[in-house]
Amino acid sequence: xxxxxxxxxxxxxxxxxxxxxxxxxxxxxxxxxxxxxxxxxxxxxxxxxxxxxxxxxxxxxxxxxxxxxxxxxxxxxxxxxxxxxxxxxxxxxxxxxxxxxxxxxxxxxxxxxxxxxxxxxxxxxxxxx
Length: 129
Description:
Blueprint (H helix, E strand, L loop, with lengths): L3 H28 L2 H21 L3 H43 L15 H11 L3
Helix pairs in contact: 1-3
């Protein structure tokens, strides 16, 4: 039997997962905007100007490299999450279309989850010779 505590933990886990997913999607959407591109150009310009005044010191370079690494990592995971979520939604829609189409080969449903040799066999059946 499931206790109230287990239910609370599941609800908390679900809420946290949805919050993180929404945040990642928002970051990916913001990262792809024209405003972000403009701000990025301004930020890089400001860093170069600061480097000129600081003589491109070792500490300046360390700060720039650290910031670049952190921003890149954050964007990598945000964009990858959004891409995975969108891909899964597209695959679900395509599976539904195949399922609803008369005469379609239902063996291609969820083909992305099958082993590579099975995918190749399915492809060879459906490719024009």
